[in-house]
Amino acid sequence: MSDSAPVDDVPIGSESIRLGQFMKYAGLLDSGGNVKEAIIDGYVTVNDEVERRRGRQLQHGDVVGFDDRRARVCP
Fold first, then answer.
1. In the list 7, 11, 23, 39, which could disulfide-bond 70, CB 3.0-4.6 Å?
2. Is 70:5 a contact under the CB 8 Å cutoff?
């Protein structure tokens, strides 16, 4: 994934959201099983660092990357 990939802002309507939930909500993946597999296999980044915890709490401003897409958690 390229750091220069465009970032889509995704409003969540709350203070925080779990990584797995956010990936489905943002449309990065469409099922919990696919999300779990992608995270375990090390294909997901949070703020440009590999993240392997599906339950990680994301805050406003965090940027999640998967494949060639990036999405930022927004209020």
1. 7
2. yes
What residue ranges define each of the domains in the chain, with the CATH number in brackets? 7-74 (3.10.290.10)
Asked which of 3-7, 20-24, 47-51 is least confident by mean pLDDT, the reply is 3-7
The residue written with tokens 């703020």 in the block is 47
- Position 19 scores a pLDDT of 98
- For residues 19 and 53, the answer to whether their CB atoms sit within 8 Å is yes
The CA distance from 42 to 70, in Å, is 15
CA atoms of 10 and 63, how far apart (whole Å): 10
